[in-house]
């Protein structure tokens, strides 16, 4: 299958993708459905024509069954023929050699992206030395020598670990130091989602947003690609064109290719009919509509990694065939927004961008929670919808580790602009202030007093950062000392990541209701629907306006109808105010205890 993205739509320095697939023996158990094969098939379908990609496999030995080459029809056929090699299982797992050999293959002018799919940890054969010493040495060499060198050479490592037995600390640290994405996959089905996020990072493309299973195709598009995920037993998806024609895998649109896999459908439609299309069925959360258009949405200055507590400058514009579009040629009534969405799709922070001639600029408020996220720029105008998505990681600006033997807390700067010259860190422990002393360019040590190791104790951490002559305060939640102890003075969720405690913003006090809703269920349902009306009207107004404008104008010209509508609106407002008042009276505040 071809891809409607072409080499002309990519940057001059095209990225090269090198997929590294684990074929160790444990894969037989952890990937019984051979989802690694489906992930490779997804790459084959989505990699733009002309971009370069290759495939490596590893267990005890490293092989390169598909050397990097341009993604043409011949390359795609060879890639699909690799499925039998992915079940040729081997006994051991040599991750270091696999990454080294894939990274050391033919050098290219553009960036190299290594995509590691593994379910285990480094496990070398006995003939190479005594265990576990050889495994530990290989791991340290990968993190302390090879990883930093790859970062200097502009080699990005993305990693997916789809087993509880995988060394998540290893893959997360390797991805972080090279600017890549990492994802633990709790269930095999989630592998495709994680792999797709990495493909999106390497080959970003314009999308059209899908609202209520509808999407708008503007005139002049060269084509669109619909990637529709589905679960087991769910009905097969269909497409309904603006003229009402229905299409499926058995009867695709003229000239289209409709490929059906076990967990998704991939539909490529050239020269699509302009207007509003509709999806039938129940497409999954990660489904999307990507487009190929001479008019593309561009961004600048957006980092690969976001940091908790730091806002992000955003600049966006439109380009036509590589040339910036002047303000007069933009779609009318154009409005751009930028959002950061967490893994569930909920919006963490958002900003409306201000137009400055042909550019749109703003600052995205700082994220408050870490983890995998999506940065989204959305454009809406008259008869125009466009969306640009960049998967990203959100990390803490400072990480910490309790060194129990050394009676200290070790702190390290994760944000690239923080160092000993512009950052001061301190803590508060049982009323006493503790200072952190620099022990390196981007590391600090905080000495602890004598403590009872039988108690879990909260340490409040704070910081001051100076940028461009302006000092700002870093608010870091509490770190639990001796967190493995059952008896605790206070309780805070401080789950470790990358062998350190990740800091997140403290949550506001939780307000709970003693008896749930204060109203009968039917009334609650009515109020819920009423409260949703403003959101629905905002989302659909551009579609409703041409139809409703004339009848509404005629209706409001009659005094009786104006009186009835005014009375109805007043009653709805009173109902909402009454519900809020009753809920407030029934709510009982609860705040977590503090030291």
TrEMBL record:
Transmembrane segment boundaries: 560-582
UniProt cross-references to SUPFAM superfamilies, sorted A to Z: vWA-like
Tagged with keyword Transmembrane: yes
PROSITE patterns from the UniProt entry: VWFA
Domain VWFA: 16-202
Domain of life: Bacteria
Keyword Ligase included in the entry's annotation: no
SMART domains linked: VWA
Entry keywords, A to Z: Membrane, Transmembrane, Transmembrane helix
Pfam families linked: VWA_2
Protein name as annotated: VWA domain-containing protein
Species of provenance: Billgrantia antri
Lineage: Bacteria, Pseudomonadati, Pseudomonadota, Gammaproteobacteria, Oceanospirillales
């Amino acid at each position: 299958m071809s891809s409607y993205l072409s080499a002309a739509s990519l940057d001059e320095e095209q990225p090269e993708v090198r997929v590294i697939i684990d074929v160790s023996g444990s894969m037989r158990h952890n990937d019984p459905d051979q989802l690694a094969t489906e992930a490779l098939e997804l790459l084959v379908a989505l990699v733009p024509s002309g971009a370069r990609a290759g495939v490596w496999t590893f267990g005890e030995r490293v092989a390169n069954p598909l050397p990097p080459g341009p993604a043409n029809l011949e390359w795609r056929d060879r890639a699909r023929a690799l499925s039998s090699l992915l079940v040729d299982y081997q006994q051991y797992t040599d991750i270091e050699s696999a990454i080294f050999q894939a990274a050391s293959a033919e050098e290219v002018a553009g960036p190299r992206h290594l995509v590691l799919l593994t379910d285990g940890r480094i496990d070398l054969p006995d003939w190479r030395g005594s265990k576990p010493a050889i495994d530990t040495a290989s791991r340290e060499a990968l993190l302390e020598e090879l990883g930093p060198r790859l970062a200097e050479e502009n080699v990005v490592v993305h990693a997916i670990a789809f087993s509880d037995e995988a060394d998540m600390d290893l893959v997360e640290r390797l991805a972080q130091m090279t600017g890549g994405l990492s994802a633990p996959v709790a269930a095999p089905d989630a592998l495709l989602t994680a792999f797709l996020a990495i493909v999106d990072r390497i080959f970003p493309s314009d999308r059209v947003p899908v609202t209520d299973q509808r999407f708008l195709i503007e005139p002049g598009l060269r084509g669109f690609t619909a990637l529709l995920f589905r679960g087991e037993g769910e009905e097969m998806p269909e497409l309904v064109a603006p003229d009402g024609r229905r299409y499926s895998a058995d009867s695709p649109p003229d000239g289209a290719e409709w490929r059906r896999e076990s967990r998704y459908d991939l539909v490529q439609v050239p020269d699509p009919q302009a207007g509003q299309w509709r999806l039938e069925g129940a497409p999954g959360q990660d489904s999307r509509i990507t487009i190929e258009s001479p008019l593309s949405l561009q961004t600048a200055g957006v980092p690969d990694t976001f940091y908790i507590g730091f806002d992000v400058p955003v600049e966006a514009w439109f380009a036509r065939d590589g040339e910036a579009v002047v303000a007069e040629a933009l779609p009318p009534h154009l409005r751009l927004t930028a959002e950061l969405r967490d893994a569930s799709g909920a919006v963490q922070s958002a900003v409306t961008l201000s137009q400055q001639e042909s550019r749109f600029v703003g600052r995205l408020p700082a994220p408050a929670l870490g983890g995998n996220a999506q940065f989204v720029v959305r454009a809406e105008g008259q008869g125009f919808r466009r969306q640009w998505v960049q998967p990203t990681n959100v990390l803490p600006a400072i990480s910490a580790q309790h060194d129990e033997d050394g009676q200290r807390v070790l702190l390290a700067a994760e944000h690239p602009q923080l160092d000993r010259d512009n950052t001061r860190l301190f803590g508060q422990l049982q009323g006493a202030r503790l200072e952190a002393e620099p022990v390196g360019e981007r590391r600090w040590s905080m000495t602890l007093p004598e403590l009872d190791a039988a108690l879990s104790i909260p340490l409040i951490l704070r910081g001051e950062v100076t940028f461009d002559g302006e000092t700002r305060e870093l608010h870091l939640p509490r770190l639990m000392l001796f967190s493995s102890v059952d008896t605790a003075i206070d309780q805070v969720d401080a789950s470790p990541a990358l062998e350190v405690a990740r800091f997140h913003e403290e949550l506001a006090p939780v307000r709970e209701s003693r008896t749930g809703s204060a109203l009968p269920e039917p009334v609650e349902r009515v109020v819920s629907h009423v409260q949703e009306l403003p959101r629905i009207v905002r989302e659909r107004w551009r579609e409703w306006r041409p139809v409703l404008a004339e009848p509404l104008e005629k209706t409001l010209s009659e005094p009786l109808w104006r009186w009835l509508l005014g009375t109805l609106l007043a009653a709805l407002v009173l109902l909402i105010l009454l519900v809020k008042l009753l809920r407030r009276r029934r709510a009982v505040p609860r705040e977590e205890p503090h030291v």
